[in-house]
């Protein structure tokens, strides 16, 4: 008499039956608490906010006094610290997303509807140029180049858009189109220089673009004091204002004049879609990614590495130029020595936080725009320095750039290994 045992899967249960898979909720939680891109980014933001909370407490002299007698009455310091941090971050949220108190008053008819949309309008306004400059860094990074010259390219884009905006008398729609294209063209020209030098002479793009940042800034300072550019009615260094026909129209002006988000955010979304299509569907995008992964392998495959370097920097410069264009045709409406601010350098942080992927860049730009808009409210209402927001932004990028640190702090499981093709953009952002 013999006994037959059937097994499946190399040692599975008898009778050919498999163990039932774990419930969906369990599998979801296991994947959620792993070192994947989204989880690491979210936890990096949480860590940055925690460090920011500590800095808020340290910077408050009254709280420092309370911590001097902490062991005598710990509840005084802890309670006051919680109130201080909660108030600061609550104002950060109210200034960036929505203020529930204002919404309630709008519903009751005490305030106009425009007040309810003011926070998100400011967030989108601050995010608009960062989308362009973040994409400018990201697309160069995917091509194997570190574009530090985003700031200079944005400056040239602002110059081109402003000059067309107040020098050329054109009809309404045509004038705006011409100003937008001029910003992209001058930014592309500024990006062409390091791309050409990299391709022809092997000059390092980081050194060249850093120098071009300074050249662009000095050129801007010289230009705005010229008689044919300077505003004759002003004694300070400022250009003539951009004509009404060349200004980006405000999208929510019908709700209220204080809502400053303009057509630039629509152009930014279109740019994200275009770059995503370029990287995933176009032949140039394939060559760009191939050169970024391995220039030698791309050369062996018959691709023009030098030509790709030039084209990548031209496209990156055009995107950065559009970022500068949104500043001068939107909020600023004139050239000043500080018309661009730090949108070029902030765009580098946005590109890194977005992991050089188009929709990741868009999400990172929205986050930075929210921090900037909410930071203004936090400074006014809570007395917290706006520089703290910049510290939080930097900390987010630091933690995102150090996933092993985030993984160790939160004891994250290792993410499932993926192929190189999938890691290059097939999944996640």
Features:
disordered N terminus; mainly alpha; 2 domains; disordered C terminus; 429 residues; globular; 68% helix; single chain
Q: Could you tell me the strand content as a percent range?
A: under 5%
Major β-sheet annotation: none
The whole-angstrom Rg is 26 Å
Number of DSSP E strands: 0
Tell me the overall shape: globular
Order of helices and strands: HHHHHHHHHHHHHHHHHH
Mean pLDDT: 87
Number of helices: 18
Q: Residue share in helices?
A: 55-70%
Structural class: mainly alpha
List low-pLDDT spans: 1-12, 417-429
Number of domains: 2
- How many angstroms does the end-to-end distance come to? 61 Å
Reconstruct the topology from this structure:
Elements: H1 24-32, H2 37-59, H3 61-68, H4 74-96, H5 100-107, H6 114-142, H7 150-167, H8 172-201, H9 205-223, H10 264-281, H11 283-293, H12 295-300, H13 305-328, H14 343-353, H15 358-382, H16 387-401, H17 403-410, H18 420-426
Helix pairs in contact: 2-16, 2-17, 3-4, 4-15, 6-10, 6-13, 6-14, 6-15, 7-8, 7-9, 7-13, 7-14, 8-9, 8-13, 10-11, 10-15, 11-13, 14-15, 14-16, 15-16
């Amino acid at each position: 008499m013999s006994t037959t045992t059937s097994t499946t899967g190399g040692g599975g249960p008898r009778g050919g039956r498999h163990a039932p898979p774990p419930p969906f909720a369990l599998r979801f939680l296991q994947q959620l608490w792993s070192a994947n891109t989204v989880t690491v980014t979210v936890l990096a933001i949480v860590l940055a906010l925690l460090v920011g909370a500590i800095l808020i407490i340290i910077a408050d002299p009254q709280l420092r006094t309370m911590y001097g007698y902490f062991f005598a009455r710990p509840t005084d310091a802890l309670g006051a610290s919680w109130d201080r941090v909660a108030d600061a971050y609550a104002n950060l949220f109210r200034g960036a997303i929505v203020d529930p108190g204002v919404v309630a008053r709008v519903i009751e008819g005490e305030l106009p509807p425009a007040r309810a949309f003011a926070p998100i309008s400011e967030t989108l306004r601050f995010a608009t140029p960062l989308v362009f400059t973040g994409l400018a860094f990201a697309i160069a990074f995917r091509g194997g180049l570190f574009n530090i010259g985003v700031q200079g390219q944005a400056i040239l884009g602002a110059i081109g858009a402003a000059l067309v905006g107040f020098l050329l008398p054109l009809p309404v729609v045509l004038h705006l189109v011409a100003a937008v294209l001029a910003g992209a063209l001058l930014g592309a020209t500024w990006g062409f220089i390091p791309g050409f030098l990299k391709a022809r002479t092997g000059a390092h793009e980081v050194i060249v673009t850093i120098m071009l940042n300074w050249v662009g800034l000095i050129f801007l300072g010289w230009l705005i004091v010229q008689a044919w550019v300077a505003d004759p009615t002003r004694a300070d260094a400022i250009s003539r204002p951009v004509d009404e026909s060349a200004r980006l129209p405000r999208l929510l002006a019908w709700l209220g004049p204080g809502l400053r988000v303009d057509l630039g955010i629509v152009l930014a979304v279109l740019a994200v879609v275009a770059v995503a299509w370029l990287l995933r569907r176009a032949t140039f995008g394939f060559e760009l990614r191939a050169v970024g992964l391995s220039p030698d392998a791309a050369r062996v495959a018959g691709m023009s590495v030098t030509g790709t370097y030039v084209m990548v920097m031209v496209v990156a410069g055009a995107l950065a130029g559009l970022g500068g264009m949104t500043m001068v045709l939107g909020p600023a409406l004139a050239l000043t020595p500080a018309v661009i601010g730090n949108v070029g350098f902030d765009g580098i942080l946005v590109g890194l936080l977005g992991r050089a992927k188009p929709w990741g860049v868009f999400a990172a730009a929205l986050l930075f725009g929210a921090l900037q808009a909410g930071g203004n409210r936090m400074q006014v209402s809570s007395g917290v320095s706006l520089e703290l927001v910049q510290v939080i932004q930097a900390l987010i990028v630091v933690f995102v750039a150090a996933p092993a640190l985030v993984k160790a702090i939160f004891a994250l499981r290792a993410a499932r290994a993926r192929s190189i093709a999938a890691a290059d953009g097939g999944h996640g952002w």
